[in-house]
Amino acid sequence: MAGSGDWAHEWSRIESTIRGSFRQLRERYLRRAGAGSEQQAPSRRESEQGAGDSLHSLPVEVQMYIMGLLSPRDLCQLGCVSRYWNAMVRDPLLWRYFLLRDLPHWNSVDHLSLPNAALLSKSLTDSMEQDYMTVYLMSCPEGRKHRRVRPSAYSSVTSLFYSLVSQAQPRFAMFGPGLEQLDTSLVTKMMNSPGMLPVISLPQRQIDGIGSGISFLFKNEYKFNILTLYSTTWKERESARLEENVAVNRLFVEQQSAEGRQGEGAREAYSIIPQVQNVCTVVDGFIYVANAEGSRRHDREQEVLQIQAMIDPSLGAQSRPLLVLCCTSQPGVQRIPCVYVAHQLQLGQLERAWLAQDTEALSLGGFLDGIEWILREVGTL
């Protein structure tokens, strides 16, 4: 996958190609319009009088600047003004430009909206064959809001009956390097969040070497439990953080795959220790805390293997959701956008619901949005 820097450097070439594409579109449109009969010409001028004539007579650069200031909703509405603007706003290079420009600023992406990495890295000459407008509208946060399924009246009644029945709290296993590498502790901030307070309740089933986790109350109504899985002891984490080294991960056991044992080209693989296997059999979902700080080194290949080991279908239902918190310590820290983290962790290959959410440990920005999503996925909300 191309890096964010490679895509940024390509913008100037995209802009130049878009201007050329606009000129071709306008020339074709004007030739087509001029080829009509004299009786049809006044009708066309009348139907496109005012805004249509004044806008499409502007230089291409000015038109592009105007469209660059519009939201996706505004662009779609502009396309309804006339046939000329309907053709202009559908230009695939324009939407590719919007996609590359805007996706670093989207604070979340899920299994239904992740743009294909191969599609984004195609050369400009191939872009005319792709429907980037559809890709953008499916991926942008505004488009995702409109796709959210509203509960039917039947499901509302069903939810009421379920609320009258005592149910076990949903339980989530939380793990990942972002728990241990950041300068600000996400877990400490969780324990002091006014929007998600720890509660004292009957402990869930104890797991040897792990405990029963901590129960939280979300929006003063919904209880859930988080089992935090650290890969090392506190002293080992502090020493590794200060020395900027990587501590030995004690949650996973490295092993060779079957292909590697049969010959050369061995691939790394991981299995998880027995205590964590017990965790994976009882949880309703997973929360992976990824380190999204751009100034740090990341071994995403190992992270992918560890995520696969944790969500192994042999340890529980494959339908359990995965929330990926793309976490930084505090404001001002260079961030890797969640769309890039999702591709680096190969989330698009997972056969389950997942969400990658930008999160900030100091303020818990984005964290509660992620919790709301995973609670909705398990049927609590």
Structure write-up:
With 381 residues, the chain is of the alpha/beta class. Helices cover 45% and strands 14% of the residues. The protein is built from 20 helices and 10 strands. It has helices at residues 4-9, 11-34, 40-47, 51-56, 60-68, 72-78, 83-88, 92-102, 117-120, 132-139, 141-147, 153-164, 178-181, 186-191, 234-243, 258-262, 274-282, 300-310, 338-344, 367-377; strands at 108-110, 171-175, 196-198, 214-218, 222-228, 252-256, 268-272, 285-291, 322-328, 354-360. The protein has an 8-stranded mixed sheet, with helices on both faces. The protein has a two-stranded antiparallel ribbon with strand order 6-7. Strand 8 (285-291), helix 18 and strand 9 form a beta-alpha-beta unit. Helix 2 (11-34) packs antiparallel against helix 8 (92-102), helix 8 (92-102) runs parallel beside helix 10 (132-139) and helix 10 (132-139) crosses helix 11 (141-147). The two termini are 36 Å apart. Mean pLDDT is 78; it is low at 37-51, 151-166 and 260-264.
Run of helices and strands? HHHHHHHHEHHHHEHHEEEHEHEHEHEHEH
Major β-sheet annotation: 8 strands, mixed
Q: How do the strands line up in the largest sheet?
A: 1-10-9-8-2-5-4-3
Radius of gyration over C-alpha positions, nearest whole angstrom: 26 Å
- Record field, number of beta strands: 10
User: Treating each run of at least 4 consecutive H or I residues as one helix, how many helices?
Assistant: 20
How many angstroms does the end-to-end distance come to? 36 Å
**Broad shape:** elongated
Strand share of the residues? 5-15%
Binned, the helix content reads 40-55%
Low-pLDDT residue spans:
37-51, 151-166, 260-264
Indicate the mean pLDDT. 78
